[in-house]
Amino acid sequence: MEEVPIIEMKGIVKVYPDGTKALKGVDFSVKKGEIHGLLGENGAGKTTLMKILSGMLHPTGGKIFVNGKEVRFKSPADALANGIGMVHQHFTLVDVFDGLHNIILGMEGHGLFSKIDVEKAKEKLQKLMDELNFQVPLDVPVEKLPVGVQQRIEILKTLYRDVDVLILDEPTAVLTPIEVKELFEVLRKLKSQGKTIIFISHKLREVMEITDRVTVLRKGELIGTVNTRETTPKELAKMMVGREVVLKIEKPPKEAGKPVLEVKDLWVKGDRGEDAVKGLTFEVRAGEIFGIAGVEGNGQTELIEAISGLRKVEKGKVILNGKDITGRPPRELYDLGMAHIPEDRIHMGLVIEMSVAENSILGLHWRKAFRGPLGLIRWDKVKEHAAKLVRDFEVSVPSIEAPAKSLSGGNQQKLIVAREVSKEPEFIIASQPTRGVDVASTEYIRNYLIKLRNENKAVLLVSADLDEVLQLSDRMAIIYEGKFVGIVKPEEVTEEQIGLMMGGIKNES
Amino acid sequence: MIEAVISILIGALTAMVPLVLTSVGATVSERAGVVNIGYEGIILMSAFFGAIFAEITGNPWIGLIGGAFVGMLLGMLHGFITVYLKGDHVIPGIGVNLLALGVVAFGITAYWGTAGQHQVPTNVRVAPIINTPYGSLSPMVLITIAIAILTHWVLFRTPLGLRIRAVGENPEAADALGINVERYRFLATVYGAMLAGLGGAFMSVDWLGTVTKQLSAGRGFIALANMVFSGWNPLRALLGGFIFGFFDNLSVWVRTNPEIQRIVPWQFVATLPYLVTLIIVAGIIGKVRPPKADGKPYKRE
Ligand SMILES: Nc1ncnc2c1ncn2[C@@H]1O[C@H](COP(=O)(O)OP(=O)(O)OP(=O)(O)O)[C@@H](O)[C@H]1O
Ligand SMILES: [Mg+2]
Predict the structure, then answer these.
(1) What structural domains does chain A harbor?
(2) pLDDT tens for residues A260-274?
(3) Most buried among A185, A408, A484, B73, using CB within 10 Å?
């Protein structure tokens, strides 16, 4: 007799209030104790399906069974009561609370009016963290923590609720290879404890490594479920896209030109007043991609914010095209030909409540091209511009009037990249440019960055994805605790060497 | 001199009651993410109905409770519109303020048959607990201080407070953890309006002992300003309310004191309550950030 699946979703249909048909009758079933991968291009409906399973959204049609019993979730509380918890693609943390209070929220212990026993909660959490070998600081407001750590807090939050089924929506998008490895250790441990895990990722390598079975969605429809052992990345890619995909990055050799960005002995402080960037000196030249690799939280964020005028420079200089821009406001930098794809798309990249069209001209809105008489914005031009971006970058949007928040995560990212490159910059900062973007679009964005380089632009790439840095950079620096451990050419080092350098170990070979 | 100081202090403690109650209530409401600018109207209506309840029952405490109850009802209306119907947060408040003006102006004449003003008889006014030759102190002063401290404690130390702050900062995060966003927002809104109602009834059946249609005199709005200056913190709102009350009384004292008026014009002193409250309260705390989801309806999709 066949075992009853722990989760069974049948004929799930979801139509959003604006009429977008995100799911068109999807069947999805998960066996107890397995790690089940969920794959699909940006906008395929992965997040929507999982939000339905976690009670966040109501399905328009279809049935859900848990352990063979039909359930109807009115809210996440019902899903949690059935042992289903989800870690969302876009974090759901209360920024001003510390890790501890974020985690215990809703499960603070007995009595709404009794004093929260912080010490006891801390003890309980410490035990959970030790058991999983998964440590986070508990008493720092989460907005002050790097995304990688926020991610762990999200995971701990769900585990603290003792769920049987853990849904992880693109958990690795914000993690470095080392962090991914640590996460996978945790997932394996959870699996050995009998937990069931649903794992969403765009990285086929990860899916091949960690999952037992994989389900693929395409444009709201189920394509199929396969055993991981019996498939290949190539086959999965084909299932996702619907045709053979040739993933190739073309990078012809190129001589770099004159320096476009020069950073000289730069010192920058972090949010807690500590020195985050400690005397960095480097240059990015025309026709060059300069990559920065490193574990998140080693000063990358502060460095980028200082260069782009968002954070105070304590000491040192930033020079763009020979002009000292240290401490100048961002607007002036944009006018001088800088563009910036920020690492945090929700908070820095988009105004999430505003429409795609409005978002498409952020930072461009004062340009003559979009201004009519009296300086009013010419919406016809704006819409034209937005339509072009959406077309060129294949951003899948309900309409260009739809709010940015109704886009799937990967499509939001594509929109930002499209907007920033449309500024025709001389110098572009690309911070995690392909975070959460599907395979095909990742290649498109990477090729686009190379195209900019070939057109003699200067590119500063910061990415937690080591493959990306290795693949794109002409030169790369490895950052550790605010200093460069070394500047190397990717072809001259092995991944092991880089791994060591990312841990702060300089190797002399 | 000493008697002047004591009388100003007593005056300050009394005048702070409706301000502090409303500020503390508004703080809880906004911490949960619900803006309400209808406190002016709530104070006025509760003052009116509180007086009626007190006179019918002959018991000023029933008047106070009745005023709080009227506040609760108006809070439920506001909560229903903003939290459950996901309506705008500002419009209903304007509505309540206008409604109150009409109801009270008409009500005074209709119920008591007097034009514009009604004097609440002394026997249905709250008796002071401390009497001095320079003024007397109402038990409501102590109750107000207790409410501010207790609310502060609940807001920052208990699960209830944690949830209230969570739904005002990031309702989605709270929702994902199974917290009923609507319920907590609604409760916080009702609590806020209830405190304002208590403050309103205090004005008619205790402090001033009259009902007029100008009775609230902007206190609902001053309380909101005080809430902002004090960074959505009940204890600081208590301090802010006291400072305001102090300088308010000081300016009244100056106005009745020709010798001092020769040195400083009373018009200048009359601006002091606003100025000093702003400087002291805003000065101590520096930069404040409102709750992130304050005034934003929460919809899942
Ligand atoms: N709130 C919303 N309102 C309207 N449409 C929405 C909303 N949220 C998502 N959609 C649409 O539903 C479809 C599926 O989105 P979903 O977020 O589930 O995709 P996804 O597979 O998770 O993609 P990604 O890999 O980019 O995260 C997309 O076309 C998206 O534009
Ligand atoms: Mg998604």
Answers:
(1) 7-241 (3.40.50.300), 259-502 (3.40.50.300)
(2) 999 999 999 988 788
(3) A408
